[in-house]
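Morning, I've got a small favour to ask if you have a moment. You're getting the sequence in one-letter code plus the fold written as tokens. Thanks so much in advance, here it is:

===
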Amino acid sequence: MSAVTTEAAEAAEAAEAVEPQAVVALLTKAAIFLVAVINPGTESEGTARQLCTDMSGLVKAVGFRDLSGRLSCVTGIGATAWDRLTGQPRPAGLHPFRELRAGSRHAVSTPGDLMFHIRATRMDLCFELASLITERLDGAATIIDEVHGFSYFDERDLLGFVDGTENPTGPAAARAAIIGDEEPEYAGGS
């Protein structure tokens, strides 16, 4: 077998071994959302890139403490950070967040290069993973927002609404969240 064929086979095997993020997962009782802005410089970019590479291992290391805790972390990369970190063309739907207005509601455009959506059945698992992420980014990025979510009276949000009732479930959720044939180079991503 030639070196080119061996490299191609190894690349194909590595691609099959990639585990997709848990973007379509059951709701949990605890969550932490972290938003970070990567500091200027190639060293900061390298630290952020390495954290993204290691995220699956960090989730497994913390989640191993309670296998029934359903710990997961979905990592989002902002449009500007995508350009800095990947060297790949942006996926079609990836763009800087634009300010949105709908009646009295207003979603401002905020900065953010990396977003971590950490979920588990227990807050201590979320907290431990958030601590590890923050520690790994120390000096390379600034956490600009940290929000803690939790279960509130009968799975209701703070306004009394049963959260998640409008979200698709099952195969419909996967179709809504996972990139398909419309963008083959990112198929399976989210």
Remarks:
- The longest helix spans residues 42-63.
- The CA atoms of residues 83 and 96 lie 11 Å apart.
- Residues 43-88+118-185 form one domain.
